[in-house]
Amino acid sequence: MLRIALVASIAWATAAQAADCPRPGTLGTWRVLTVDPAATPRVGLKSFPQTLPLADHEVVLTFDDGPWPATTSRVLAALAQECVRATFFLIGRSASEHPALVRRIAAEGHTIGHHTWTHRNLKYAKPADAEAEIDKGIAAAEKALHGAAASTPSTPFFRFPYFEMTPQALEKLESRRIAVFGADLWASDWNPMPPQAQLKLLTDRLKAAGKGIILLHDPKAQTAAMLPAFLRYLRENRYRVVHLEPARSVGLARVP
């Protein structure tokens, strides 16, 4: 059952700047939110009634479907140039093929979330098969990060492929204290379009929403090409990037 005290589940950082940046005039990372999955099991208005308690002009940047060397490296370079941190929801098979890139994502201060082993649509999978797909993806990312596979994630953040899910899968992840992330707005970058068109689509949606969890895909070349201009737009229009981390006190347990 969903907890009603959403705000109480989020620890707000008090520092005005969450990360120092050696280059003045950059966008930077404004603050850090620590999320406790035990109290905040799911967020994102595209899928759920509630989302993160963001102030006006605050955004959370999330990237799905990586890592993919040619484009993820460009995304990381753009984020580093502006001293911005994001959350990457990784596909396990790609993580197992590119472990050094997974470690680079983490080393540069980004948060690693999970996105299944093969990006299978779990809405149409048997419960045991869905759990196996989730666990295999988690294990691959954990092995890439730490050298040993584990079905208990060191960062308990998960996003369903296609945002397709079943009540049983949601309940299972909640029982395991793994937070499920939807999104509040997205760039629709699964549709081919020029980077300039994608930038306009995304900024128009952000103007309408005013804030939110943004979904992008780092394997998309058009997204990698668009990202520097989008980060510049955020800076010039006084948006503030909020970075997500798990609550350090979270005790994770795999429930059979």
Assign the CATH architecture. Answer: Alpha-Beta Barrel
Q: What is the total number of structural domains?
A: 1
Termini separation: 18 Å
Q: Can you summarize the main beta sheet?
A: 8 strands, mixed
The CATH superfamily is identified as Glycoside hydrolase/deacetylase
InterPro entries: Glyco_hydro/deAcase_b/a-brl (IPR011330), NODB_dom (IPR002509), Polysacc_deacetylase_ArnD (IPR050248)
GO molecular function: hydrolase activity, acting on carbon-nitrogen (but not peptide) bonds; metal ion binding
Signal peptide: 1-18
Keywords: Hydrolase, Metal-binding, Signal
Could you please describe the fold and organization of this structure?
It comes from Bradyrhizobium sediminis. One of its GO terms (molecular function) is metal ion binding. Residues 1-18 form the signal peptide. This protein is an alpha/beta fold and 256 residues long. The protein has one domain (7-246): Alpha-Beta Barrel (TIM Barrel). It has seven helices and eleven strands. It has helices at 69-81, 92-97, 99-107, 127-146, 167-175, 195-209, 221-236, and strands at residues 10-12, 29-35, 42-43, 58-64, 87-90, 111-114, 157-158, 179-181, 185-186, 212-217, 240-246. Strand 4, helix 1 (69-81) and strand 5 form a beta-alpha-beta unit. Helix 1 (69-81) runs parallel beside helix 7 and helix 3 (99-107) packs across helix 4. The longest helix is centred in the middle third of the chain and has 20 residues, at 127-146.
Write the layout of secondary structure elements.
Blueprint: E1 10-12, E2 29-35, E3 42-43, E4 58-64, H1 69-81, E5 87-90, H2 92-97, H3 99-107, E6 111-114, H4 127-146, E7 157-158, H5 167-175, E8 179-181, E9 185-186, H6 195-209, E10 212-217, H7 221-236, E11 240-246
Parallel strand pairs: 2-11, 3-8, 4-5, 4-10, 4-11, 5-6, 7-8, 9-10
Antiparallel strand pairs: 1-2
Helix pairs in contact: 1-7, 3-4, 6-7
Protein name: Chitooligosaccharide deacetylase
Family: Belongs to the polysaccharide deacetylase family.
Function: Is involved in generating a small heat-stable compound (Nod), an acylated oligomer of N-acetylglucosamine, that stimulates mitosis in various plant protoplasts.
